[in-house]
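Box 3.1 A note on notation
Throughout this textbook, protein chains are presented in two layers. The first layer is the amino acid sequence; the second is a token string describing backbone geometry. Keep the layers aligned when reading.
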Amino acid sequence: MTHSLASAVRNEHERDLVHLYYETLRNCGVSQYDFDTCWDEYRLWALDIGMLWATIPAEGRAYIGIWDTLTIMDLNPEELVL
């Protein structure tokens, strides 16, 4: 979601989709894992994959236009690492 959807579309749906993912984990027997932790891990993953993408030389990127949709700062990932 963080790398293929425009921010407005992502913002409209991502929390519900992450919650669906979380509920699926719970229904499959995952316990001792709350939604807030799941949400924070999603935000950290978005930051991590964004930083990884930034290290790939431009000529090696399959889709340079990803920077048009890679707008994760509205997830405030810096709160999780500072």
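The CA atoms of residues 25 and 81 lie 25 Å apart. The chain has three helices and no strands.
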